[in-house]
Structure formats: structure tokens, C-alpha cells
Write a structure and sequence with these properties.
Blueprint (H helix, E strand, L loop, with lengths): L10 E4 L6 E4 L9 H14 L1 E4 L6 H11 L1 E2 L28 E3 L4 E5 L41 E8 L7 E5 H7 L2 H8 L2 E4 L18 E4 L1 E3 L6 E3 L6 E4 L4 H15 L5 E4 L6 E5 L3 E5 L8 E9 L13 E2 L18
Parallel strand pairs: 2-3
Antiparallel strand pairs: 1-2, 3-15, 4-17, 5-6, 6-17, 7-15, 7-17, 8-14, 8-16, 9-10, 9-13, 10-18, 11-12
């Protein structure tokens, strides 16, 4: 592929058939100039997931990159995150509900394993694929913040501790999945909206947050740069298709996931020291794969808003929902194939 002047000595390699670009030869700790940031934004618009190898960034340096790339998001805006502590760092105990998370304010740390989180393990850790279907959490396919109105971000993730085994992060290309649908299915999806809200399970001894207000999100959005349309999916927060009975909605959403979470639209990232992942939540979904509770693993995440990568169609904007109340049940479309 051709490269701009800021990327003249950089090596590129595709890691998946429809998306994901590996980049070697960059040092993100140095000279974050406007040309470099613009080039990386252009690459992200095209590929949706960038895997930048060979980095060794501190917390402050990751914040610096995040701010240069867009408008950094305050992690205290997440209702499910623990109270922010500017002294948070991997190695200090901390847990909120079933997911061990540390909140530094500008960053979240997702931790697992002995000596890293309270109880020495993440109770949502799974070593058998069938168990992923029994729970919400990061082991289910999602894109962030769909329970909120018009929040579209780029996620940035880097490993503080690389797991010795398992602990991969998986991605799916929802733009390619939408394009692969037949014309009738695309037209049907394009005209549908889905109610999203975040409802928290009851956990003994823990004061869980209140449910978020329901909002109406489009099932299909359009990329502002490429013009590609993509499915807007989130296992966590999708309640039902607007105006549909639950059983009809469940069956329809289940089929869309089945059409999306399959080859060639999947990329499994096996963490290496120095990895630095940047991905657009528009056009992708992701999840944590199998996780061994006896293995240490710690990832550092920041988020940033990049206007050029956000949806611009009026249809893509979030709509308020009147008189809708979550009935306390969840759709569970797994397994996708009987």
C-alpha cells in the first residue's frame, strides 16, 4: 500500500481478510505531529482496527496519544465503572461487581489473576466456550456505549501484563457482515431501530447502578469517510427491535449475529509485549476470549472521540424512547446455530 510522508519507513500487513492492519516501525512515544495523527486516522477509517507493534508507553504517554488522536473521554462517565482514583495502577486491588476494573479517570485497567484483583480471580473468567453464553460481561460480543445517546468513540488498548495463555481479544467486522447480506436483508435491517439499555444483575453485597434510560438506536449506521454501512450491535444492551414482540426480535437479532460472527469477518488478537491496538467502535464489535483465572493479565484502555469517524446521517442519531420499560428479561441468542 502507498504511504504518506509521515509513514515513509513503516511496514504494513493485513491481519484479516476484510479489516485489521498491522503497523511496524512507529514509535508513538516520539513526535506525535499532526501529519502522523492524520495518517493514522485515515488508516483507521479504512481498516477499522490498527495493530501497532513494538510500543512501550507509560500511562502518561498513552494519554498523550489519546489526546492527540481525538478528544479523550473521561472514564468516569461509565455507570458500571468503579469510582475513579487518580492513583489507580495495576497491582492495587480493586473490583466492582463481577468484573475487576481499576478506574484512573482517564484510563481503565482490566485486570485478572492472582495478586491483581480481589479474590485472586475474575469470576467471569471462562475456560470453556459454552460458558460464554451464560453471562453478560466482556466475554460477549459488544461495542461500547450503545446505551448512551450519540456516543461514538475510538478505543485504545495496550497490555501491561501479557497473559501466558488465553486472554485473547476478538473482533468482528460489522461493515463487511452487512455488505455480505442479500439485498432484501440489507433493506430490512436499514429500516429497523433497536431499543438499547443497560440493566444490571443483582449481586449480593454490592450496590449495583440503576438501569440506564432506554434509547432507540439504528440497526444500521453509515461510515462518514468510506460511506460503508455497518450493523450496530451490542449483546449487552440490545433489548428488542422497536415495535416487535420479544420472540420475533430475539430470532431476528440472533440471525444477524450469526451472519456477523463468522469467518471471514473475525480477527483474534493474541497479545504480544509492545502491542498497541486502536479500533473504531463504529463498524466493529469485540469481546474477550477464553480467560484462565490462574493467569495474570492486565490491559490499559483509553477512549477518544474523532469527529471524522463518527456517523453523520440523521437516521444514525439516537432517539428518545417513550413509555418503554425493560421487563427484566434478556435475550440470549446463543448458540447462534442449533
Amino acid at each position: 500500500m502507498s504511504s504518506s510522508s509521515a509513514l515513509g519507513n513503516v511496514q504494513f500487513q493485513r491481519l484479516a481478510e476484510t479489516f485489521v492492519l498491522e503497523i511496524k516501525g512507529l514509535d508513538l512515544s516520539q513526535n506525535l505531529n499532526d501529519q502522523l495523527i492524520g495518517d493514522l486516522q485515515d488508516l483507521l477509517a479504512e481498516h477499522a482496527v490498527l495493530v501497532i507493534r513494538g510500543q512501550d508507553l507509560s500511562d502518561d504517554q498513552q494519554d498523550d496519544f489519546t489526546k492527540a488522536f481525538g478528544m479523550q473521554r473521561d472514564q468516569r462517565e461509565h455507570v458500571w465503572a468503579p469510582e475513579a482514583d487518580p492513583e489507580s495502577r495495576v497491582g492495587r486491588h480493586g473490583a466492582f461487581g463481577p468484573l475487576p476494573i481499576l478506574n484512573k479517570g482517564s484510563q481503565l485497567f482490566f485486570v485478572n489473576g492472582p495478586e491483581l484483583c480481589e479474590g485472586d480471580r475474575d469470576p467471569n473468567a471462562i475456560l470453556n466456550m459454552k460458558d460464554q453464553y451464560k453471562m453478560h460481561g466482556t466475554s460477549c460480543w459488544h461495542t461500547g456505549d450503545t446505551e448512551k445517546a450519540n456516543v461514538e468513540v475510538v478505543n485504545i488498548l495496550s497490555p501491561i501484563i501479557v497473559p501466558e495463555r488465553e486472554g485473547h481479544t476478538e473482533f468482528a467486522d460489522t461493515a463487511a457482515a452487512y455488505a455480505a447480506l442479500d439485498a432484501e436483508a440489507r433493506e430490512r435491517a436499514e429500516t429497523r431501530r433497536v431499543i438499547h439499555c443497560m440493566v444490571f444483575p443483582e449481586v449480593e453485597g454490592i450496590n449495583m447502578p440503576d438501569p440506564t434510560p432506554p434509547v432507540s438506536q439504528p440497526l444500521v449506521k453509515q461510515h462518514a469517510v468510506t460511506g460503508k454501512k455497518f450493523l450496530y450491535l451490542n449483546f449487552h444492551d440490545m433489548d428488542r427491535v422497536v415495535g416487535w414482540k420479544r420472540e420475533d426480535s430475539d430470532a431476528y437479532i440472533k440471525d444477524l449475529f450469526a451472519q456477523t460472527v463468522r469467518d471471514p469477518f473475525i480477527y483474534v488478537h493474541k497479545w504480544q509485549k509492545g502491542d498497541f491496538l486502536v479500533w473504531n467502535c463504529n463498524g466493529t464489535i469485540h469481546r474477550r476470549g477464553l480467560l484462565d483465572p490462574t493467569v495474570k493479565r492486565a490491559l490499559r484502555r483509553t477512549q477518544t472521540a474523532v469527529p471524522m469517524l463518527q456517523s453523520t446521517r440523521e437516521w444514525d442519531k439516537t432517539q428518545d424512547v417513550a413509555e418503554h420499560e425493560h421487563d427484566g428479561t434478556f435475550w440470549h441468542p446463543y448458540p447462534f446455530k442449533d
